[in-house]
Each structure stands twice: as structure tokens, then as C-alpha cells.
Fold this sequence. Notes:
- This protein is of the alpha+beta class.
- Helices cover about 25% and strands about 30% of the residues.
- It is built from 11 helices and 18 strands.
- The protein has an 8-stranded mixed β-sheet.
Amino acid sequence: MKTVIGFQEPSSQASRYLDALHDAASGATSGGGIFAWATRAGLETFLGHESLVELLHAGEYRLIVGTDAITDERAIAHLRALSAQHKNLSAQAFVHGSTSLFHPKLAWFRRPESLQLLIGSGNLTNGGLVNNWEAFTVTEYNDGEISPVEATISAWLDSHAGDLRDLDHEDVANAVAANKNFEHIRKSRETEQAPGLGGAALAAANDDPVLIAEIPKNRQDSQGRAQYSQVNFDHATFQDFFGYRAIAKNAIVLVPVSATNVLGPVESTVARHKPVSSNWYFEIRATQGRPYPQNGRPIVAYRQVGNGEYVYFACEPGQPGYVELEAILEADQPLAKAGRRMRRVVTSSDALLSAWPNCPLA
């Protein structure tokens, strides 16, 4: 048995509970989790990562979510939709009649010859996963150590079978009806389609770092037409702005925002490296399927709002915001001098707001 202790800190690139969970899930064939509460954004961040998606293709993941606080209708609705999408995801809600608070937070991941158990203070919210002050342990069990752990978890689940409800049970709806979802960047942007982020995102400041970058052609559709859902960066930009972590699958939490200030669903994306070109890249969903414009380069702007969390806005020539974002790039790196190289500028949210007063990122 081997145990590692981790501490998560706001705005720190050193350690996040999210990364520990995804590392443990990578290569696992089954697993489960019991969490006091969850939000839609937290569920999107955790279960949307490719490590969990791959696990759900390999075997079952059983998730129990409490309903005493925070967990709201949108979280339950999203978890219900994910369960319908992934046949190997077994999700239930914990509803009890006690005056005590349901408050456990643990997850386990099974490999053929080992089991990793994670116990910590963080819940399935973006605050608990990446932004809050949290502590957690990762314990790896091997050989004869595994059975007692699995037996203990199974015994607890069996003993509380009467408190476990299917997600569409009326007890669940009644339990979460009064809970408040704290996962919003700004209350003024709160919509059913815009769950927003959490944690440090609530304290977004005028000096938040902002990266503005042009997007190259990088994908083709079935007819051979260029598309642009992949964004590329040099190592320095990736390390300094996006916070490189020396782990197998660097998770970056993104939320797209439209020109009309509507936030899209959380994207838990993975950054990868191209050794041949020394480029780092990841996918953004907001531009997937779009043909590459013929009259100029698309531009994307990212605002860092938390520990590995970003809101972003993408546009093409002729769309709202393009003139303003291109002017910022041109002032720093004239297109004539940049040539074929994609231009990138790191600035602040305050400077962005000055150049573009109606910017949805500001």
C-alpha cells in the first residue's frame, strides 16, 4: 500500500484534485465515487474528461451524489442525461431522513491488479475540483490489499440501499428543489444553457490574464474543406498561460461565451504535444464543424478565471468582436511582419475591456 497526500490551492499550477482523479481513472476498467454534492459544471468537468469517457467504454462507473445541499435540478438533469448517454454509468442520489448532513467524498478506480482510492475534501464542483483550498490522499492497493477495501465499500452501499434513489424519483426532485447552485461566473448571465464555472471564477478581477490568438487551418471535413477546432501554442505560451503540468493528460477547463454573453457547457479538454513541430494543442468545441473562413484568420480570446479554468470567445471576420480583437493583435504584431506565423498576444481583462467595451469576456 502506498499513499500520497495532495494539497490544492487557488491559482496554483502545482496540484489539483481533478488531475489526481483523472490520473487514477486513466487505464482503469471500473470504479465509483460517493460525493456529498455535485453541480452541472463539476459533472461536466469530471465526467467529460477523456479518462472517464475511456473508462465508461471499458466498464462500469458507479456514482452516488448527495442531495442535502448545492446539488440542484440542473445537476440531476445533466447526470440523468449522461447516464442515458453512457450505459456503463450507474448514477443514483442519496436521500435520507436524518438531520445530519451527508458529507462523504471519495472515489475509487480498479485496474486488473491494483485499486486506487482517493479521499479528500473536494466535491464534484469546479471549486472542489480545481479552485478551492482542498486536501486529498491517493492510496494504491495491490494484491491481497484490494479485497478488504472493495468489501468495505460494498458493505456500506448495501447497508444504505434504502437511501439510494434513481435520479427520476420524486424524492430526489423534492430534496434538490431548494438547493442553490453556486456555479456561476456572474448571476446576470445565469441561464439553463449557461451553467458557468465556480470557485475563483466568482472573483474574476480586472487584471485577469487574457490570451488573444489566431487559429490556423487544422482539420478537414469529409469533402476536404479546412476547419479550425484545434488551437496550437508554443511551449512557453502553454506553460505560462495554460499552466503545463507534468502528467499524462493535462486537463484544461474551458467555457465558451457567445457575443450575446451566453455561456456554453463546460469543456474538460486535454492538451497534447506535437514533438515534430514542438507545438502544444487542444480542441475547442465552439468551432467544431465550422469551415475555415476565406477572408481572414479566425481569432480566439481566453480569459483565465481560475486554477486551470478559462472562458473563451471565438470569432471570424465579419462577426462581432473580430475588428476589436484583430486591432489588438495588429498593434502588437502587424500582419505584414508576422507573415504566415499565427499571432498571439497576452494582455489583461482590463486592457481588453478598454479596447472592446462590449466584450463578453470582460
